[in-house]
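Example for tutorial group B:
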């Protein structure tokens, strides 16, 4: 898997049409949380770096090639992601959207590594 970009605590690699996000907080409290296939939670402090790393990937040919290969009309539609919801109790921002882990489990779980189809990256970066 080639590394596409690294910013602060985030690294994005890609294989085929899938982007794999890796965060440096391996399993700690501040690790991203994923409800596989349903949503993503990111520590508020990590949002600027995540936004920047996704923005860098959106500039790369691999993103545009993945969009060109995808035939559905929802490819790249920012509406696939919910509006961010901040929870002041845990200082995480929650988004409903198409991210996933290797081992699906109910509810939000710490996930220092998770996947998002390249075509769906535009929503979190908006």
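The residue assignment follows.
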């Amino acid at each position: 898997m080639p590394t596409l970009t690294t910013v602060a605590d985030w690294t994005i690699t890609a294989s085929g049409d899938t982007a794999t996000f890796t965060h440096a907080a391996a399993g700690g409290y501040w690790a991203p949380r994923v409800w596989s296939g349903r949503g993503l939670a990111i520590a508020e402090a990590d949002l600027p770096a995540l936004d920047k790393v996704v923005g860098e990937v959106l500039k790369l040919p691999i993103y545009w090639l993945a969009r060109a290969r995808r035939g559905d009309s929802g490819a790249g539609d920012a509406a696939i992601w919910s509006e961010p919801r901040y929870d002041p109790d845990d200082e995480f921002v929650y988004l409903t959207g198409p991210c996933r882990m290797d081992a699906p489990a109910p509810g939000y779980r710490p996930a220092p590594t998770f996947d998002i189809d390249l075509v769906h990256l535009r929503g979190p970066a908006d």
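Residues 81 and 97 are 5 Å apart (CA to CA). Compare this with the pattern of hydrophobic and polar residues in the output above.
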